Amino acid sequence: MLGIIIVGIRFLLIFIFPIVLCTVALYFKSKRKFEIGKSGFITKKSVKSKETWDYAQKIAPDVYLKMSIVCAFLDFLITIVMFIADIEYEIIIYFCSFVGFVFVIIPIFIVDKKIDEFSDIM
Hints:
Elements: H1 2-14, H2 16-30, H3 50-84, H4 89-121
């Protein structure tokens, strides 16, 4: 029984960042009508105007959800390769955590870039 719990905790540690990204995406998707600057996807570019705010709240959930899927897939591949290479579990967690941290930051830049493109069209 203890072995199952330990495996579950290890599984959770490897996939913690994709889980967080997915949770953020679902939160953004569930409440699209955020008050400007109070909650939601908040950056300097997203709070410039009502239009950019609404656009950011519309696209952010999809970007975060896509990043969570890609991050989970990469974590899975990394884990399989490192298990086959017989690398220590702690190293696998560190490596997957680094990859996950990068994937937490990437959506901010993607959404801000899309806001710039949206602002240029307006």
